[in-house]
User: Fold this.
Amino acid sequence: MQAGISVRHLADRVGCSASYLRKLERGTRSRMGPEFYVALRTALAATDEDLLDPVEDRPKGSR
Assistant:
């Protein structure tokens, strides 16, 4: 998923470090609290499916 904002800007909006977001993105950090998840989903204007459905599992041509 690409939201068109920098990791640093997103981290500021969510209230976490850019390093933490990069770890989530790379998969080296997999757990997050529910408050952080909601803040991330809100900041990205994303659905649960956007954040939880692996890109590899989506049909070709879908987001």
